[in-house]
Amino acid sequence: MLISLCKQIRKILVVGGAGFIGSHMVRYLARAGFQVMVLDNLSKGHRDALSDVELIVGDMGDKALLQHLFRQYHFSAVMHFASLIDIAESIQFPDLYYQNNVIATKTLLETMLEHEIKHIIFSSTAAVYGEPKTNLLTENHKLAPINPYGQSKKIAEKLMQMFSQAVGLNYIILRYFNAAGADPDGQLGERHEPETHLIPLVLQVAAGKREHVAIYGNQYPTLDGTCIRDYVHVTDLCHAHLLALEALLQGKKNKIYNLGAGQGHSVLEVIEAVQRIVNRPVPIVQAHARAGDSARLVADTTLVRSELQWQPQYSDLETIIQHTWRFMNKQ
Fold first, then answer.
1. How many helices (H) and strands (E) does the chain have?
2. Does the chain have fewer CB atoms within 10 Å around its N or its C terminus?
3. Which residues belong to the active site?
4. Contact, 176 vs 259, CB < 8 A?
5. Quick check: 321 and 274 in contact, CB under 8 A?
6. 3-state secondary structure of 306
7. How do 12-15 and 36-40 pair as beta strands?
8. For residues 302 and 262, what is the distance between their CA atoms, to the nearest angstrom?
9. What tens digit of pLDDT does each residue of 55-84 get?
């Protein structure tokens, strides 16, 4: 069925397609036979992460640019990866997060619907949940974000629900837990500037590019006192997006799914795993806990597994670390 769908589809617009997850998704879509166009302002993304696809350098909040694109091309669906994602930065500069993650998203949705483009897959986050009330988070857990990043994503989700009720937008929202890893062939991986994600930071220390890794707080209500996160491989995320796209184009709509491995690892566990796998020391320093960090975020992925038949293949911690290390060494 997927092959037949691909033959019918003309173009998918990937907004934010030059970033970490977006660039992996572009490659995944192309390999599956889809035609892809990327819209990215390159503030966080990398032009050289894309090959053999058309890149439009611009902002999703630029109404005139969107009008031009949607008049010129008929897109069967839009994938939206163009969000600011750093929790600490969102606390320091909340206005940037509301401008990009909310207002620009609203502009994108409005312009899509003006041009009768009604299918969107939206990258959301586990940060919408805030402090969990259960060990595993289901999609119906109360939304109570504790930082501007999570709040901005919650509002963006609400916008999609409102547009759906009012004018027939069809959406699938995917709430990521901690995206990590790299393409298994080592050609794509994380290149945030500055890097803020734990696994590449720890590996940079192991590679001698940093002196140490900071542990932000060791008094959380977890077994070793450090935060626990659910790490999901970027390739598994892309597979889930492809399944969601297929489902959306077949008529499934207005669904929300968690995307995680369903297993949590503490900061100390990640550091110990890196030291074991790459056989290099990782010096650590203790730092104060950061505002806006939840103690534990681990996904219940029962719904996406049952409804989309998603089965992650690479999301064990060892594979994620190995693939990230391979990418770093190729760089």
1. 12, 13
2. N
3. 149
4. yes
5. yes
6. helix
7. parallel
8. 9
9. 999 999 999 999 999 999 999 999 999 999
Question: What's 7-28 look like in SS3?
Answer: HHCCCEEEECCCCHHHHHHHHH
- Dist. CA 271–CA 283, nearest whole Å: 9
**Pairing mode, strands 213-216 and 284-287:** parallel
Provide CB contacts within 8 A for 226, sequence distance 6+.
Answer: 215, 217, 218, 220, 266, 267, 268
CA 15 vs. chain centroid, Å, equals 12
User: What angle (nearest 5°) sits at the alpha carbon of residue 143, between those of residues 139 and 149?
Assistant: 110
Q: For the chain, which residues score pLDDT lower than 50?
A: 1-7
Q: Does the predicted TM-score (pTM) go above 0.85? A: yes
Radius of gyration of the chain (CA): 19
Structure-token pair, residue 59 = 């902002």
Residues 59, 104: contact at Cβ < 8 Å? yes
At residue 32, the 3 state secondary structure works out as coil
Residues 6+ apart with CB under 8 A from 72: none
- Residue 293's identity, in one-letter code, is D
**CB of 96 closer than 8 Å to CB of 84:** yes
CA 260 and chain centroid, separation: 11
DSSP 288: P
